Amino acid sequence: MSVAKKEYKRVTVKSLVDMKANEEKISMLTAYDYTMAKIVDGAGIDVILVGDSASNVMAGHETTLPITLDQMIYHASSVVRAIDRSLVVVDLPFGSYQSDPKEALRSAIRIMKESGGHAVKLEGGKEVKESIKRILNAGIPVMGHLGLTPQSIYKFGTYTVRAKEEEEAIKLKEDAKLLEKIGCFSIVLEKVPAKLAQEVAESVSIPVIGIGAGGGVDGQVLVVHDMIGMTHEFNPRFLRRYLDLYSEMTTAFQQYNKDVKSSDFPNEKEQY
Ligand code: KIV
Predict the structure, then answer these.
(1) pLDDT digits (tens, 9 = 90+) for 89-147
(2) pTM for this one?
(3) Is any atom of ligand 1 closer than 6 Å to the C-beta of 227?
(4) Does residue 237 form part of some domain?
(5) Catalytic residue list contains 165
């Protein structure tokens, strides 16, 4: 079933801006490997984010901070090999763009050259403005990320909703306008009040893609392992689980274990 207003053979950064102008919502999911990306792309999801959440989901780290540029490139190149239609956006990991704009550009170039991704995403507003400009000047599309920015978890101290206070809400609105002005093609807005998120989306012409930011924005993103229920200890209010794969996989593995132990597997038809 498709609710697309227009068919996009290949989704580009321009398609996303068109989708916003045509009031078509944008779908985005994470993927970190070939097999998952093939399914996500085949299902018609517009954008695949090779998120630095791979640090948590794939590598078991507590935060997104440890993942390296080399590891992001490995994940992204696996995803790119699977894609026919989706736009592939790759996170610049912590430490690869904050120290100076030249380093940011070098990191973004490595991602584009070595993975074949179509755009990069990085966290922050005014503080990373010069880095974003430098990357954009090299012709690399940039997606911003505001609100809860997990790479700054040690500054925030918690993963709770951001910008509930006026001062932070004002800065967020200014940052969104700034990202639009300098040329970002889109912004991820994470875990902020729905009313504020809608105001931000209405104040800019580029698409705002929310996670925990309500329905008044231009699109939605979820971490794929969360929405298919492979992770089961993470239960934020914003998460809708479409499957309970944790339970289904556990049942399958238990059955396999039983079948091997009892010599039920393989049977006669399952051998040569
Ligand atoms: O890394 C990630 O998966 C993300 C999403 C949560 C937006 O940045």
Answers:
(1) 999 999 999 999 999 999 999 999 999 999 999 999 999 999 999 999 999 999 999 99
(2) 0.97
(3) no
(4) yes
(5) no
